[in-house]
UniProtKB/TrEMBL annotation:
Gene3D superfamilies: Acyl-CoA dehydrogenase/oxidase, N-terminal domain, Butyryl-CoA Dehydrogenase, subunit A, domain 2, Butyryl-CoA Dehydrogenase, subunit A, domain 3. Signal peptide: none annotated. Residues 236-382 form the Acyl-CoA dehydrogenase/oxidase C-terminal domain. It comes from the Bacteria. One of its GO terms (molecular function) is oxidoreductase activity, acting on the CH-CH group of donors. Its cofactor is FAD. This is Acyl-CoA dehydrogenase. GO terms for cellular component: plasma membrane. Residues 127-222 form the Acyl-CoA oxidase/dehydrogenase middle domain. Belongs to the acyl-CoA dehydrogenase family. Residues 6-123 form the Acyl-CoA dehydrogenase/oxidase N-terminal domain. PANTHER family: ACYL-COA DEHYDROGENASE, ACYL-COA DEHYDROGENASE FADE29. Keywords: FAD, Flavoprotein, Oxidoreductase.
């Protein structure tokens, strides 16, 4: 494991820093969280600027439209953009961080050529249609059906908690192509499809969250025709493809946010010094522990990136569950500490830490709950016997 940066990597960092310093001033603030169409336009606009400057899809392979940069350069990119306060990936989250990487790893050359360049340019936005009203943690029990009819699958069912569905062009969709039976266990009959969100039969009903925003939705699918050519991987082999998607989601998708949390932690300490809360020994202890925690998470990231570079592995392993587990708890503790620093001010929704605190509650649920991550760590990393 080598955690030092080469001259080339340091040079890359310096050029990126310069570009950010020249580009960020004058950038308008991100639109209000109640305005998702506005946010989509803003987020995709920022993505386009990154693309034009040569910073989109840095570590994606060149034949997937990427720049073929090393994972370390990608890590430097995440670190520097967060440190500089560059816009959040936002509406581009699914496309850039897990649907795109899945297609790059599992798609045919034709599929890569069709879907990846528009993601990198910010022309198309993706959402994730995995969860269903009765299939969250137990994802394999999903019931949305897809029946083959000529060159299309006819899809009927419902998906829930679909982030950004309202503004998405495509959905990475899991469907059941083989009913569960004695011969077909539930993990076997699943297929991964790319569904156009404007297809007839797709209805999106936004759901309001604790913070008052409606960035996710329930989707109703009524005999939606999805071309067979949109299937990524083989029919009934979708569970394996899904594991690739989830390993990207848990392994790499939250990395940049660790840097953002470290930045917030510094702001928090400064605020506590300014308003007298620093005298609270218990609070100081919490902030110190969180500093250690976020530093450790960043080191864990550097370590796994260094390993991936060394072994040439494109898909992150189960280690992503360790990261996801610890990160989502540390994020909640960070914003609980923010509430202690703010005191009564923590009820003020216009303070950026207040909605962050409310939304931090979802981090131990989204992308797989903590209990599920604990199971994965216990069984697949530690080799402990199954509890059930
Ligand atoms: C902010 C947010 C955004 C999301 N975005 C998307 C999205 O874009 N697309 C999408 O498809 N999904 C999305 N989800 C859904 C998310 O993946 C699910 O909520 C999650 O997988 C949990 O499923 P569930 O809500 O059905 O809870 P359940 O599975 O019903 O779990 C309820 C409780 O039981 C526990 N539990 C369940 N099974 C076990 C077990 N075997 N062992 C121990 N404990 C267990 C769980 O940990 C949890 O505490 C999002 C969720 C959130 C909160």
């Amino acid at each position: 494991m080598d955690l030092t940066y080469t001259e080339e990597e340091q040079d890359f960092r310096a050029r990126l820093r310069e570009w950010l310093a020249a580009t960020l001033p004058g950038l308008p603030p991100r639109p209000d969280p109640l305005d998702w169409p506005g946010r989509r336009a803003y987020d995709t606009g920022w993505q386009r600027r990154l693309y034009d400057a040569g910073y989109a899809g840095l570590h994606w392979p060149a034949d997937a439209g990427g720049r073929g940069a090393t994972p370390t350069q990608h890590l430097i990119f995440l670190e520097e953009t967060e440190l500089a306060g560059a816009p959040y990936v936002g509406a581009n989250f699914v496309g850039l961080l897990h649907a795109g990487p899945t297609i790059a790893a599992e798609g045919t050359p034709r599929q890569r050529a069709r879907w990846l360049p528009p993601v990198l340019r910010g022309d198309e936005v993706w959402c994730q249609g995995f969860s269903e009203p009765d299939a969250g943690s137990d994802l394999a029990s999903l019931r949305t059906r897809a029946v083959r009819d000529g060159d299309a699958y006819v899809v009927t069912g419902s998906k829930i908690w679909t982030s950004h569905a309202e503004v998405a062009d495509w959905c990475e969709l899991l469907v059941r192509t083989e009913p569960v039976s004695a011969a077909v266990p539930k993990h076997r009959g699943i297929t991964w499809l790319a569904m156009p969100m404007n297809a007839p039969g797709v209805t999106v009903r936004p759901l309001r969250t604790l913070t008052g925003t409606a960035e996710f939705a329930q989707m109703y699918l009524d005999e939606v025709r999805v071309p067979v050519a949109n299937r990524v991987g083989d029919e009934n082999d979708g569970w394996r493809v899904t594991m690739v998607t989830l390993s990207f989601e848990r392994g790499t998708a939250f990395v940049g946010e660790v840097v953002a949390c470290r930045r917030t932690l510094r702001r928090l300490a400064a605020a506590a010094r300014g308003n007298g809360r620093w005298d609270d020994q218990e609070l100081r202890r919490t902030l110190g522990r969180l500093n250690a925690e976020f530093t450790a998470l960043w080191r864990l990231t550097q370590w796994s990136v260094s390993e991936a570079q060394h072994t040439g592995t494109a898909v992150p392993g189960n280690g992503g569950s360790v990261f996801k587990l610890r990160y989502s708890h540390a994020r909640q503790e960070l914003y609980d500490a923010a509430a202690r620093v703010l005191g009564a001010g923590s009820l003020d929704l216009s303070h950026d830490w207040t909605p962050e605190r409310l939304s931090s509650l979802s981090y131990t649920i989204a992308a797989g709950t903590s209990q599920i991550q604990q199971d994965i760590v216990a069984e697949r990393i530690l080799g402990l016997p199954r509890g059930r």
